[in-house]
Amino acid sequence: MFNSKGIAFLLAVSACGVAGAHERNNCREVHALIVDKSAPADCPSPYRFCAAGTVEGNRGLNGTTYFVLDGVGTPPTTGPGFNVTPGLLTYTTPDGTLTVRETGMGKLTGSPSNGVLTSLQEIVSGTGRYEGATGTLYNAAVDINGVFYSDITGTLCLVGRGPKD
Q1: 112 exposed, middle or buried (CB, 10 Å; 0-12, 13-18, 19+)?
Q2: Integer Cα distance of 164 and 95 in angstroms
Q3: CA-CA distance, 59 to 123, in Å (whole number)?
Q4: What digits encode the pLDDT tens for the residues 39-75?
Q5: CA atoms within 13 A on the CB side of 151
Q6: Is 143 helix (H, G, I), strand (E, B) or coil?
Q7: What values do phi and psi take at 20, rounded to 5?
C-alpha cells in the first residue's frame, strides 16, 4: 500500500507533529539530584515508608521532595531480592508543586540497605508554574548508609511558560 517514499513522508510528518507539540508545550530536558532519607514521622503510607529530602536541578526544580510508598508489587521470580515500589513523589519549589506517580524496582534490603533503585516518574499534577505540566522523568538511585541519592533525568513540558534553567 505504501512505498518507501510514502513511508518516509509519513514519518517526516509525524516527527514534525511531535516536534511542534514539544515546542508549543515548551518541553525541555530535566537534570536534577534528589538527596533524601526515610521520614517516618506522620508518614501516611500504609507500608510505613516515606522519604523527605531536597532537590537541586534545572527547570526550576529546586526545593524539597516528599515520597509516600502506597503499594508493593510482586517481585520478579528471577530477580531475588528485588522489590516493586510504587508511590507518589511531590516536588515543592518556590514556584509551585509537581506531583509524579513513581513506579520503581530496587534491591533495598536491610537497614541501611546500601542498595539500588530505578524508577519511572509520570507527571500527574502540578500547581503554579507546573500547572498543566506533562512529561516523564527517570530516577537512578543509590542508598548509601540510609541516604538516597537520586539522579533525575527526563522531559518536562510546561504549557505556555518560558524555560527556567
Answers
A1: middle
A2: 11
A3: 14
A4: 989 999 999 999 999 999 998 999 999 999 999 988 8
A5: 3
A6: strand
A7: -60, -40
Give the residue, 26 or 112, on which the prediction is more confident.
26
C-alpha cell at 92: 515543592
With 0-12 CB in 10 A as exposed, 13-18 as middle and 19+ as buried, what is 41? exposed
Buried-exposed string 125-135: b where 16+ CB fall within 10 A, e elsewhere: ebeebbeebbb
What's the CA gap between 28 and 56, in Å, rounded? 16
Closest to 118 in 3D by CA, of 104, 101, 100:
104
- Contacts for 154 with CB less than 8 Å, ≥ 6 apart: 29, 30, 121, 135, 136, 137, 138
| 153 within 8 A of 135, measured Cβ to Cβ | no
